[in-house]
Amino acid sequence: MSMHWSRWIWIFVDDHGNMSKKPQTLNLRIGNHVEIGANTCVHRGSWRDMVMGDHTMIDNLVQIGHNVVIEANCILCGQVGIAGSASIGDYVTLGGRVAVCDHISFMTKVHLAANSCVTKDIKEPGDYGGFLAVPIYEWHRQIAVRCWTSKEEEKSC
């Protein structure tokens, strides 16, 4: 297992333009039977512990920000990025390269398609996808309309 720990996350710039680091001093709590892939970066907490629930599986090259809580039985595929202070419920699956903005909360049993971007809370269980993430049937409809529109434009050229 290869993990990279970060002791310094927040950088403050004072009135004179000088940068100073704020140490992240809280803990990382890893549950039972958690798997963490190679080159995964996990940041410690600054105002609450970073938590990984039991039976969670994290693939390679995942970035997890400070203060994140990941509940039990979650799957995070490769190159997922979770910004600070996000809360992820039980049985959540994040496909490859999913991006999660800071301070976002997921309901239990949320599944996100690869390359999705989550910018607001997900309050209902279900399948989501797209940039910006929407329920999967809406995302499929958006793709179908784009394909249909592009075919119509090709005919007129």
Structural features, described:
It is a single chain. This protein is mainly beta. The chain has one helix and 19 strands. It has one helix at residues 136-156; strands at 3-6, 8-13, 19-23, 28-30, 35-36, 40-43, 50-52, 57-58, 63-64, 69-70, 75-76, 81-82, 87-88, 93-94, 99-100, 110-112, 117-118, 126-129, 134-135. The strands form four sheets. The protein has a seven-stranded mixed sheet with strand order 5-8-11-14-16-18-19, covered by helices on one side. Strands 1-6-9-12-15-17 form a six-stranded parallel sheet, with no helix packed on it. The mean pLDDT is 89.
Provide tags for this entry.
single chain; 157 residues; mainly beta; six-stranded parallel sheet; 1 helix; 19 strands; 13% helix
Helix percentage range: 10-25%
Widest sheet, order of strands: 5-8-11-14-16-18-19
Based on CA inertia axes, which overall geometry fits?
A: globular
- Average pLDDT for all residues: 89
Number of helices: 1
Walk me through the topology.
Blueprint: E1 3-6, E2 8-13, E3 19-23, E4 28-30, E5 35-36, E6 40-43, E7 50-52, E8 57-58, E9 63-64, E10 69-70, E11 75-76, E12 81-82, E13 87-88, E14 93-94, E15 99-100, E16 110-112, E17 117-118, E18 126-129, E19 134-135, H1 136-156
Parallel strand pairs: 1-6, 4-7, 5-8, 6-9, 7-10, 8-11, 9-12, 10-13, 11-14, 12-15, 14-16, 15-17, 16-18
Antiparallel strand pairs: 2-3, 18-19
In a nutshell, what does this entry contain?
Helix content is 13%, strand content 34%. With 157 residues, the chain is mainly beta.
